[in-house]
């Protein structure tokens, strides 16, 4: 074999230039036609079926048990560190990942029991001045991409797009999908105090979206507000009453003042001290770019949070969150390296789509999890549980909760400029 | 981790950032 390999003479033959040119034309044609006709597979409802696509490295990543690894990572980083070690360990971490220790609150590193605690650190008041613009950054990070949405396609990186419907989800009334729970549209025809039956589980409308007999909002500011009992996949969640009693008149006054502030920032003249019937802005259900108001467009922006960044996120404007959709998915890394290689990265990963409205129409914010930070917290949604063990629902399905009870006046969870909304935790 | 914002705005909305730019909470992302 060695002899044959080394001694067999290689004979080179010239091929006609035309054949070579033809070959190049064919290769170029195939490349272009692949770009023009991406392999988009639609399901029976016409919604794109998202599959893992990319080079071999992506498929190797897809074969790894990323969710289990993420939970293990979270467990390891929740272990308490020796008090003497904490300053050294966190200073090393800060040096490696570029954290600014001067702005953290508390600044005594011994008070952070674990790396997970330190990762989810708070900032000192005033550490982040808020610009007087209509849209500010919701997080510390790097702007990966931004632009306008055309034909309901969002651009991940130059030339690679994903479906807006796949990212935010579409309402599929009547679809017998166990993971999709009730939406407002399911309830629009239900009278107060009636029983709605979704997926075979009964509950009262008051329990679901809050009514006159439902408890009022909780006291203690926005962090303690609870959504109406959500459409969580676990049946025991239904009928469970969230503690939402008002403890003092003063806190209720604060809450109303907060909502009034948000309404004012949204350009709404809501009768906040009057009866809770005002729904000042027309509710828009569609996120399609074909349905935006005349003169408006749909825009997108992607911000990547590196491991050393402050990992809480804030409200980028004054808006009202009407609902959230929790998509259980993979937990690929969302680093720029992967974003350039893995198509549909943000659609494949676990994410929480917070959908609502601001003064110019539809507004949505989607925190997307990753391998090291698989847990997403939303302060005003105590029911939300991300990166949990258990059977995975079919791709593209989601659980949904509405926040109608949070503010009957604004019919959702009002958020003011730069108000803290939640964050990402390790594992 | 990543945050994706999707929003409707008047067509003359302009982003005030560049791709690859570092940004902080509360910093201007865009304006009319």
Which regions of chain A are unreliable across 5 or more consecutive residues at pLDDT < 50?
174-248, 270-286
Biggest pleated sheet of chain A: 5 strands, antiparallel
Secondary structural class of chain A: alpha+beta
Uncertain stretches of 5 or more adjacent residues of chain B = none
| Average predicted confidence as pLDDT of chain B | 92
Oligomer: heterodimer
Distance between the termini of chain B: 28 Å
* SSE ordering of chain B: EEEE
Task: Please report which band the strand proportion of chain B falls in: under 5%, 5-15%, 15-25%, 25-35%, 35-45% or over 45%.
Answer: over 45%
Biggest beta sheet attributes of chain B? 2 strands, antiparallel
Structural class of chain B comes to mainly beta
Radius of gyration of chain A: 25 Å
Q: Classify the helix fraction of chain A into a percent range.
A: 10-25%
Mass-distribution shape of chain B: globular
DSSP summary, beta strand count of chain A: 19
The total beta strand count of chain B reads 4
* Largest interface pair: A-B, 63 and 30 residues
What's the tally of helices of chain B? 0
Helix content of chain B: under 10%
- 3D shape of chain A: globular
How would you explain this protein's 3D organization?
- The complex is a heterodimer of chains A (427) and B (32).
- With 427 residues, chain A is α+β, with helices and mostly antiparallel strands.
- Helix content of chain A is 24%, strand content 21%.
- Chain A is built from twelve helices and 19 strands.
- Chain A has helices at residues 2-7, 17-36, 56-63, 66-76, 86-97, 115-119, 164-168, 184-187, 205-209, 249-265, 336-341, 345-348; strands at 41-42, 48-49, 104-105, 122-123, 135-136, 141-148, 153-157, 160-163, 195-198, 201-204, 296-304, 312-314, 319-327, 351-358, 361-368, 375-378, 399-402, 413-415, 420-425.
- In chain A, strands 13, 14, 15, 17 and 18 form a five-stranded antiparallel β-sheet that branches.
- With 32 residues, chain B is mainly β.
- Chain B is 0% helix and 53% strand.
- Chains A and B meet through β5, β6, α7, β11 and β15 of A and β1, β3 and β4 of B.
- β5 (135-136) of chain A pairs antiparallel with β4 of chain B.
């Amino acid at each position: 074999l060695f002899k044959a390999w080394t001694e067999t003479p290689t004979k080179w033959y010239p091929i006609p230039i035309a054949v070579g040119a033809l070959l190049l034309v064919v290769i170029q044609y195939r490349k272009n036609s692949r770009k023009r006709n991406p392999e988009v597979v639609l399901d029976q409802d016409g919604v794109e079926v998202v599959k893992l696509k990319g080079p071999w490295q992506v498929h190797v990543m897809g074969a790894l048990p990323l969710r289990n690894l993420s939970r293990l990572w979270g467990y390891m980083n929740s272990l308490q560190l020796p008090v003497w070690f904490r300053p050294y360990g966190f200073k090393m971490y800060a040096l490696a990942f570029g954290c600014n220790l001067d702005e953290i609150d508390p600044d005594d590193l011994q008070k952070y029991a674990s790396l997970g605690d330190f990762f989810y650190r708070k900032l000192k008041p005033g550490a982040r001045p808020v610009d007087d613009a209509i849209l500010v950054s919701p997080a510390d990070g790097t702007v990966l991409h931004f632009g306008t949405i055309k034909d309901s396609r969002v651009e991940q990186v130059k030339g690679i797009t994903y479906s807006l419907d796949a990212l935010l989800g579409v309402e599929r009334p009547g679809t017998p999908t166990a993971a999709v729970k009730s939406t407002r549209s399911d309830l629009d025809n239900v009278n107060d105090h009636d029983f709605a039956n979704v997926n075979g589980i009964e509950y009262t409308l008051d329990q679901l979206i809050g009514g006159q007999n439902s408890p009022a909002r909780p006291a203690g500011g926005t962090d303690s507000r609870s959504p109406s009992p959500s459409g969580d996949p676990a049946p025991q969640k239904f009928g469970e009453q969230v503690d939402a009693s008002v403890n003092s008149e003063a806190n209720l006054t604060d809450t109303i003042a907060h909502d009034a502030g948000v309404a004012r920032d949204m350009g709404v003249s809501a009768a906040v001290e009057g009866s809770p019937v005002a729904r000042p802005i027309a509710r828009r259900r569609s996120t399609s770019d074909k349905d935006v108001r005349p003169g408006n467009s749909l825009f997108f922006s992607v911000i990547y949070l590196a491991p050393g960044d402050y990992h809480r996120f804030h409200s980028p404007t004054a808006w009202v969150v009407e609902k959230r959709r929790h998509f259980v998915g993979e937990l690929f890394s969302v680093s720029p390296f992967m974003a350039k290689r893995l198509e549909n990265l943000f659609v494949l990963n676990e994410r929480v789509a917070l959908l609502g409205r601001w003064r110019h129409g539809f507004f949505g914010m989607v925190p997307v999890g990753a391998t090291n930070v698989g847990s997403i917290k939303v302060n005003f949604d105590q029911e939300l549980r991300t990166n949990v063990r258990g059977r995975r629902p079919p791709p593209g399905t989601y659980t949904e909760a509405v926040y109608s009870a949070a503010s009957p006046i604004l019919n959702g969870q009002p958020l003011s400029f730069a108000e803290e909304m939640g964050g990402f935790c390790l594992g | 981790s990543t945050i994706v914002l999707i929003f409707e705005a008047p067509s003359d909305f302009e982003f005030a950032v560049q791709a690859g730019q570092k940004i902080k909470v509360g910093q201007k992302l865009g304006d009319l």
